[in-house]
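User: Here's a protein and a ligand (iron/sulfur cluster). What would the complex look like?
Assistant: Let me lay out the input and then the predicted complex.
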Amino acid sequence: MEHRIGVFVCHCGTNIAGVVDVKRVAEELASYPGVAFSTDYTYMCSDPGQNLVKDAIKEHKLTGVVVSACSPTLHEATFRRAGVGADLNPYMVEIANIREQCSWVHQEDKPRATEKAIKIIKTMIEKVKQDEALEPIAVPVTKRALVVGGGVAGIQAALDIANSGHEVILVEKEASIGGHMAQLSETFPTLDCSQCILTPKMVDAAQHPRIKLMTYCEVGDVAGYVGNFKIKIKKKAAYVNRDVCTGCGLCSEKCPSKTDSEFEEGLATRKAIYTPFPQAVPNKPVLDAEHCLYMQSGKCGICAKICPVDAVDYTQKDEFVDVEVGAIVVATGYDLYPIINIGEYGGGKIKDVVTSLQFERLLSASGPTSGVVRRPSDGEIPKEVVFLTCVGSRDPEHHKAYCSKICCMYLTKHAMLYKHTVHDGQAYLFYMDVRTGGKGYEEFYQRAAEEDDVLYVRGKVSKLYEEDGKVIVWGVDTLTGQKVEIAADMVVLGLAMEPNAQALELAKKLKIQVNEWGFLSEAHPKLRPVESLAPGFYLAGAAQGPKDIPDAVAQASAAASKVASLFAEKEYHREPIIALVDEDECAGCRVCVSVCPYDAAEFDEEKKVAHIQEAICEGCGACIAACPSGSVTQKNLTDDQLFKMVTAALED
Ligand code: FAD
Ligand code: SF4
Ligand code: SF4
């Protein structure tokens, strides 16, 4: 077959052209064997740039195209679409990455960068010469979504997907949906009451005819692929038949066993049989076997005796439910960095040094002190309160180099709300920088400093210790260089936000990527911020990175709209660049089956050979590298293609 390849060299403004001599590259490649057309252009991805590619395909009857530009993750799809626009099979369009792999890394040596760009392009010309015209793989789509995590992000995603006409299963590991937002008092920057804006949404989610709420549940085994996931959901034993329970609360009222309340962050107690908070959805209890006298010693049994509908069942076991969904939204939220790790601030042993979430509960009208700020040690109203930002964040000592993004704002809110209740109190806020990047946030900070007299001190506190009923705060004001020592009544720590404790385990199960801190990784930070690299998984809320409520909700709606567009089509089209087993060569050793991270390689017991499931294979190449008989190849990346590409790269 005669090859008629087109080479299109992009300047990428000055990103490439500032280093690589693009004109020389285009000229030199014009005479390379198989090349029928070669040119350069300022922005190949722009409309005129794409038209240039389309027109050249038609005019020069091109059989293949090499666009020499940026990374294929950015614009491969763009140029493949341009190919289709000129009736060229999209898999006959290849990208030669001469930006990330050349101009950006060789700015110091322009002549050699130009030589390297030519070589990179030649390798891709050799590849496209042997490419086959492929068709995307069509897979059917189950139009039902799973949302994991029932915080504000998960609730919003579930409501939006359901409102677009599709069924949703919302799985929450705790006894109620609501997440951390349910614990907050008032919310910056508008100071509206958190419960007032959240609880109606919780009720909407519970009553929505297309949302199935599964609280006190966890995701078990996950199999399948985009459009066709099969999930086992574990319904944890609640020891209460929650379908029968009327939520009358008699059992909790009479239960004699108490323990620290998780919802109240240990500042109050709950019973062994409990609903996490009065506005919980569903408003039905679960029994905590570890603290139940009957479950531990066979004594008591009051709740079962008193329950008017016989809902308490001490013999209940975990159950597993199988569900099938087409898309999964992960909205598992955050935890605070454990206070126990901050030894220099008492490691959780100083009673009047509290976490930011504990302070939220002290400020909350429904909290343990009914919204009156009282210090935990003696219940006195604190007159001097110190708020510390960046505790664990931006701090390599605690391995959290990232900024938790919202602590400046919520500590400003804390200081302001404290001053609204204790008018003669003094609030000090230690900061590294005040970061107020949100609508109305800078004004909120100005209000705290100017109208509420919050004293902002730029500096880091080195130590906290207890002395004569006070918490001594040792720090330095880095603006004046002066040492600062405050005998505070109470200290509030703005602890780093980190991924939920179970996030890593869940990410492994779902086979989706996380970053070095354990936050879920998006496919592209700018262009695909709510999708995971693994198709069919979408990200929402603080599970993807520290976030405030507006951002968590916006991201949840964005994830929901991605799900809705997936469900809008009858079929989903997957990339056909996958592995293929040569059945005549396959020795049936099953090595590929053992290495495939996606469970796409299976063993055909009848034929005694390996088989790759097209709908699951991600084309990662693990099986190809592992196969001892060389019987697995990658479509459009065969050994022969690779050898020709290597030869082109080494020809001089
Ligand atoms: P979360 O609220 O953490 O919810 C995640 C949910 O997922 C939880 O219910 C959790 O139980 C569940 N989950 C986790 N893992 C699993 C699993 N494996 N399976 C099933 N379920 C799971 N933002 C503002 O905009 N204004 C404020 O005033 C404000 N104040 C704040 C004050 C403090 C002290 C803090 C720490 C944060 C504050 N925020 C504020 C931020 C706000 O809390 C978050 O933006 C919001 O809660 C993020 O919602 P989310 O749904 O992403 O996560
Ligand atoms: Fe409480 Fe357990 Fe007694 Fe029930 S049996 S009342 S949960 S201690
Ligand atoms: Fe599995 Fe091989 Fe496909 Fe990778 S290329 S997903 S290992 S079958």
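Summary: The mean pLDDT is 96.
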